[in-house]
User: Fold Transketolase C-termil section-like from Daphnia sinensis.
Amino acid sequence: MVGMAAGLARAGFRPFVYGLSAFIPLRVVEQIKLDIAHDQLPVILIGDGAGFVYSHLGTSHQSTEDIACTRAIPDLSVYSPADRFELTACMDMAYQAKAPVYLRMGKSDRGDVHAAVPHAKTGSLLQAKPGQAGVIAFIATGSLVRTAMDIATRSYPDAAVWSTPCIKPMDSQQVATICEQSRLIVVLEEHSVLGGLGSVISEIASELAPVRILRVACRIVSHSIAVVTSIC
Assistant:
């Protein structure tokens, strides 16, 4: 299917490749890398059910490594919308990019984060909840943006919440500004603690604006799943 999409893209079409994120992209990383990304073909890869939404089907259908895998592929963008409005914005950005894109969907409907389709720029973070400078800032992606907003509203009313619909590329200067204005950054994602959004934020912060970062993600240990927090 990925090879067919590459051929269609070479013939002038704009293919969309859809599958569960445990299969697209995880089981076809090599084909995505060589057939699509290497030649920067305008193929949009849609991975549905990212994270644990298919938890009852076991490890083979869970996807907690897809961001880490796709981040490492040159010339492949990675989008992770939080709600239906961000999904519309990400789909528009992906189609207009005319380049390889992996669009990650969590599938579990956690409710809307935005009231309408946001004006999103490629690489930028979207403020889902305003906050005060000098306190906690939450940065989340996908299904956990709604969770971050619920936590902030209930327990940290002064904290800002930022959604990350575009994980790669990412506006490093915007992230640095958020870090500079915050006492603590809390990153939430339905993904492995290794190589995901928390890693991106930590990498940018360590280079441009060091700050204390708490990463809330998962770690697979002996075929069991644990939600872990890691402080940088």
About this structure: The helical segments are 2-10, 29-37, 66-71, 84-97, 144-155, 172-180, 197-208. The mean pLDDT is 93. The longest strand covers residues 212-221.
